Amino acid sequence: MTHTMLLIKRKLKKAKKTEISVEEFGKMLSEKDVTISDYCKDKQSESMLDSIVRILESDYNIHPLIDTTSESGYNIRIIYGEEYYENNKLPDPHKDDNNGLIVQHIIVENHSEEKLKNMVKKVVQELIIKGDIYSRKLSIYDWTQLKTDKTWSFVTREKIEGYTYPDSHFEYNMMTVTPTGDLNFETFNDIEPTESTDKERIMLMYSEYNKENSRVCNSVEGLVFSDINNIHAIVRTCEFTIPDIYKLNMALKETNPNTAVRKENLINMINAFSSEYPQYADETNNLIAIIREQQPVL
Predict the structure, then answer these.
(1) Helix (H) and strand (E) counts for the chain?
(2) Phi and psi dihedrals of 75, rounded to 5?
(3) Residue 285 and residue 295: Cα distance in Å, rounded?
(4) In the chain, where do the E strands start and end?
(5) Which residues contact 132 (CB under 8 A, 6 or more apart)?
């Protein structure tokens, strides 16, 4: 479930940046029953339950069922953090498999109204994604908007550690999306014999891409392809964005003295950057020297 949800979230992020409105989420939720249960039963959880119900009713036009479970609907459960169950030696609902139910937990805490609204929105998104996985149909994003006639596959892999060397292996999780948004899932590994040349190629390409990128400190997070002979890697690089120091210097020269910052504050910020990225020490030292020479003193 975790790997599949990760695949969907990555594809949604790349496929469309347009924000889904609260009203649209409400329409998606309305297709199933929505329940909310308080597993804590204290004053804080009761207050939180009341607030969540109010948010669902006012923002999403959803009237949830209280303290019950829907076998085919969306279930929200208010629970304590993991430490509570560990310290009190109680069964931890975080570890429940939920027996095929669509369940999303929310930890009981004090929250501002705005923070709780954001939390409820995240819970709603998670519930809908889980619902899509169970129904094997992508609804949180209109896949047909891509106007593609191809079937796309997304693959991640996880190393499974064993007690002995032969027991250690890689497990591959593959999600396939058809042009109509239908989802198919498959899991396979590199220790069980397979007659599928496609799976052999996926395992080969994953290893090749991983070997190639590990030389430059990059890591392969997954594969994507519509043609088994043209597999692409999703790579997390070690690159990061830094400010253009020389443009920053020019901007400082044009700064209005009435809105200028103190030299000491600016130098402290640059030193903080230099401490985190020592490889740019020469550039930051030059910039600090330039700032110190600026007149009048800011």
Answers:
(1) 9, 9
(2) -120, 120
(3) 18
(4) 34-38, 65-66, 74-79, 102-107, 152-160, 169-177, 183-189, 219-225, 232-236
(5) 8, 138, 139, 140, 183
With a cut of 70, list the residues of the chain below it in pLDDT.
1-19, 163-166, 216, 240, 242-243, 245, 248-249, 251-261, 295-298
Q: What is the pLDDT of residues 163-178, one digit of tens each?
A: 665 678 899 999 999 9
Burial class of 154 by CB neighbour count within 10 A (0 to 12, 13 to 18, 19+): buried
Query: Whats the size of the chain, residue-wise?
Result: 298
Q: Which residues are CB-neighbours of 2 under 8 A, at least 6 positions away? A: none
Residue of 106, 93, 95 whose CA lies nearest to 64: 106
The two three-digit tokens of residue 116, written as one number: 């709780």
Q: Over the stretch 209-225, which tens digit does the pLDDT of each residue have?
A: 988 887 767 889 999 99
The pLDDT, as a whole number, for residue 117 is 92
- DSSP assignment of 15-81, as one string? H--SPPPHHHHHHHHTTS-EEEEESS-SHHHHHHHHHHHHHHHHHS---PEES---SSSEEEEEE--
CA dist., res. 244 & res. 66, Å (int):
55
